């Protein structure tokens, strides 16, 4: 019910603008000797709400829903959405360039299996995918004789003119009257668990976990008081927040 309050109601991009963006991406993929590229609606922390600088799916396709993925090949391009967004996606994309397909049943891997061929190189940004998703895509590519290629930089960023800068909002302390437990007490419990597991340190890659562990809040993500961050908590010594 409340999700509608967070949707984007801006006028969709014109088909001409979207077509030019898709063409620019394909030129960049050709320059990198890639057969295709996977575009998730995601940021590095897999947040539901992402900053404007990570709205690559919306920039490329015109689709502004909160979940989805696109796959761009040399001659085919598909936008995968769940049932909530089927009508919205059809209204926002350039129908002459994109096909709207299910995100779940059948999954995007089924579409890829029909369109990839042996020798193809499918690129992806490893910062934007979970390990489980990468393993699934890699297995699919192996079945058809293609290769899944992790990229050092995102090709969309290379062609996105006027891309917003990544957020760098202020970070504030979340007081004990709100958190109910001090940062020191939380870190002590975390370190106890690190020792129990016979590990040397814990890497936190989830901004929610960082915010909770250190009793901090931020303003990097809309509708969620998070600082986009990572942390390293050693078994002994000072932790580091990135």
From TrEMBL:
Gene Ontology MF terms: aminopeptidase activity
Record flagged with keyword RNA-binding: no
Protein name: X-Pro aminopeptidase
Keywords: Aminopeptidase, Hydrolase, Protease
Keyword Hydrolase annotated: yes
A Pfam family it matches: Creatinase_N_2
Protein origin, superkingdom: Bacteria
InterPro entries per UniProt: Creatin/AminoP/Spt16_N, Creatinase_N, X-Pro_aminopeptidase_P
Domain Creatinase N-terminal: 21-153
């Amino acid at each position: 019910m409340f999700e509608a309050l967070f949707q984007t109601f801006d006028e969709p991009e014109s088909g001409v603008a979207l077509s030019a963006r898709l063409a620019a991406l394909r030129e960049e993929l050709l320059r990198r000797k890639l057969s295709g590229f996977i575009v998730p609606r995601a940021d590095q922390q897999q947040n539901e709400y992402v900053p404007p600088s990570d709205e690559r799916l919306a920039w490329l396709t015109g689709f502004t829903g909160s979940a989805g993925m696109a796959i761009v090949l040399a001659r085919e391009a598909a936008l995968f959405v769940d049932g909530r967004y089927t009508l919205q996606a059809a209204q926002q994309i350039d129908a002459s360039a994109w096909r709207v397909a299910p995100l779940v049943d059948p999954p995007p891997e089924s579409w890829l299996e029909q369109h990839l061929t042996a020798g193809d190189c499918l690129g992806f940004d490893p910062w934007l995918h979970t390990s489980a998703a990468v393993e699934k895509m890699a297995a699919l590519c192996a079945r058809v004789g293609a290769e899944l290629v992790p990229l050092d930089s995102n090709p969309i960023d290379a062609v996105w003119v006027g891309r917003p800068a990544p957020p760098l909002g202020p970070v504030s302390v979340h007081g004990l009257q709100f958190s109910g437990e001090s940062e020191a007490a939380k870190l002590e419990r975390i370190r106890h668990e690190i020792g129990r597991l016979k590990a040397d340190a814990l890497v936190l890659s989830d901004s929610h976990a960082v915010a909770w562990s250190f009793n901090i809040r931020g303003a990097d993500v809309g509708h969620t008081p998070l600082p986009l961050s990572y942390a390293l908590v050693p078994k002994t010594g000072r932790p580091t927040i990135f």
